[in-house]
Write a structure and sequence with these properties.
Elements: H1 7-28, H2 39-59, E1 65-74, H3 80-90, E2 93-97, E3 104-108, H4 113-126, E4 130-141, E5 144-146, E6 162-163, E7 166-167, H5 176-179, E8 185-195, E9 234-236, H6 250-259, E10 274-281, E11 288-290, H7 291-304, E12 308-311, E13 313-314, H8 320-332, E14 335-339, E15 362-368, E16 387-390, E17 394-397, E18 407-411, H9 413-430, H10 436-445, E19 448-449, E20 461-462, H11 465-468
Parallel strand pairs: 8-10, 8-12, 9-10, 12-14, 14-15, 15-16
Antiparallel strand pairs: 1-3, 1-4, 2-3, 4-11, 4-13, 5-18, 6-7, 17-18, 19-20
Length: 470
């Protein structure tokens, strides 16, 4: 029931919107959004929505946000009847909610966000029911593939070797080879790879793929009760299915840097030789990423007790919904390692998200090259970027048709962030009882100072994983 102190206002608003509500009810009979749908009908219209959304994204790769949905955060005091009333103002229907951020809803709308959001914001706030309404921002995966492959991992141990026709400087690395004398990771530690997916059958990733211990494969039952059926090694939050297989290549590349199998006589080596990689597909085949999918990935990690997730993506759109998710993740003890961006901009002036959210469970990473310079493409920021890591000409696992043996060079802060995520694995492996704050502090306090990063990031230095694990 609507609360008594809101009845008069609701009645007045209802009268104002009666024609629109009637129109939205009529539209619901032929569009996704009809409130009387059964569970199977729910699945059908959501599948139709995703197919339509995907077609729009692929036809218009420059879209800045989803033109078919919105994000609304209801006040904690709002009843379900009151929420339903607000949704009805614009003919909206719930696509997803998250335990991570109570009151936050991802809503399908039969119009465009530019029309729906002002209505929900104005009347929702007038009635004290809505905290905010916003678009579901789209972001971009952060690197352009280089089709030349060469297996020298200068970022781990730089002896001055030439990489991709680029001579390096000895010592311009993260001293991973020295850290491996202390630890190579843990086969029980799980990392959430929030990206374009993961080629779990790749020869250098298969042994480190995470298996959900609470789920029985292919029995069509939600065994672990998390709302995802047969999520045996993660979830595809973009297409809403159980298969987070990479169809872009970006996610497989970042996964190889975090946790490519070490000492197996093939391919590359991740910063963490031993780790479990959870596939969290949040991006399209063409590289678009949504706020809602990113929130879902964090929500999944928190629900599974995963301590850290890698986010090699971003854009300039601030999302109150994602910001709230980061805050809730902080409360749960979860840390996000985020790429600073590849636009050579100062994030202190033009924030790049999610790296630029200000909570202390964010680690924002700039990119360096094999001569200890800041990469020519890297964003920076004396207060909004925390440290640097190797990101130019990074060799790692990749996808190529049906091959499980593909490797490639990519460059970007997307390649830098996984070095730091892998370092988090090593530090936690040595100190399993530590909080995210202790791990973050150790990584930031042990960076190696670089002239090129002075005034360009909080620490003024590059990741030194050897110092971090000692």
């Amino acid at each position: 029931m609507l609360s008594p102190n809101r009845v008069l206002q609701v009645c007045l608003v209802s009268a104002m919107f009666a024609p629109a509500l009637q129109a939205s009810d009529e539209r619901a009979t032929r569009e996704p959004g009809k409130s009387t749908a059964t569970s199977s009908q729910d699945e059908a219209w959501q599948a139709a929505w995703r197919a339509n959304r995907n077609a729009l994204v692929e036809a218009h790769p420059g879209l800045r946000h989803d033109p078919t949905s919105m994000l609304v955060k209801f006040d904690a005091s709002a009843s379900e009847d009151e929420r339903a009333f607000v949704r009805g103002l614009v003919g909206a229907r719930v696509l997803e909610t998250w335990a991570l951020v109570p009151g936050l809803e991802h809503l399908w709308i039969p119009t465009v966000p530019e029309e729906a959001i002002p209505v929900v914001e104005h009347y929702g706030k007038l009635l004290g029911l809505v905290e905010f309404a916003e678009v579901d921002h789209f972001y971009r995966l952060g690197a352009t593939p280089n089709d030349t492959y060469y297996s020298l991992l200068w970022g781990m141990n730089n002896t001055g070797q030439t990489v991709n026709n680029d001579p390096g400087a000895a010592g311009a690395d993260i001293d991973a080879n020295l850290a491996w004398d202390v630890t190579t990771g843990s086969s029980t530690f799980v990392v959430g790879m929030a990206d374009s997916g993961l080629r779990a059958t790749h020869e250098d990733l298969a042994a480190n793929r995470w298996t959900n211990p609470g789920e029985i494969a292919n029995n069509n039952i939600d065994d672990d009760g998390n709302g995802r059926i047969d999520d045996t090694w993660g979830w595809d939050f973009w297409n809403n299915d159980k298969d987070p297989t990479d169809d872009n290549g970006h996610g497989t590349h970042t996964a190889g840097t975090v946790g490519g199998v070490g000492n197996n006589g093939k391919g590359v080596t991740g910063v963490a030789w031993s780790v479990k990689l959870c596939g969290l597909k949040i991006g399209s085949r063409t590289g678009s990423v949504s706020s809602s999918a990113g929130i879902s990935a964090i929500n999944y990690c928190v629900g599974k007790g995963i301590k850290v997730s890698n986010h090699s993506w971003g854009g300039t759109g601030f999302s109150s919904a994602f910001d709230a998710a980061v805050t809730s993740a902080r409360t749960a003890g979860h840390m996000l390692v985020c790429a600073a961006g590849n636009s050579t901009i100062n994030n202190d002036v033009t924030p790049f998200y999610p790296a630029s959210y200000t909570q202390d469970n964010i680690l924002a990473v700039a990119s360096t090259d094999n001569n200890d310079g800041i990469s020519t493409f890297s964003n920076y920021g004396a207060t909004r970027v925390d440290l640097g890591a190797p990101g130019t000409n990074i060799a790692s696992t990749y996808i190529s048709r049906n091959s499980n043996t593909a490797y490639a060079y990519l460059s970007g802060t997307s390649m830098a962030a996984p070095h730091v995520t892998g370092a988090c694995v090593l530090v936690w492996s040595v100190n399993p009882t530590w909080t995210y704050a202790q791990v973050r502090s150790k990584i930031l306090s042990t960076t190696r100072p670089l002239a090129s990063l002075a005034g360009k990031c909080v620490t003024g230095g590059i990741l030194n994983v050897n110092a971090a694990v000692r």
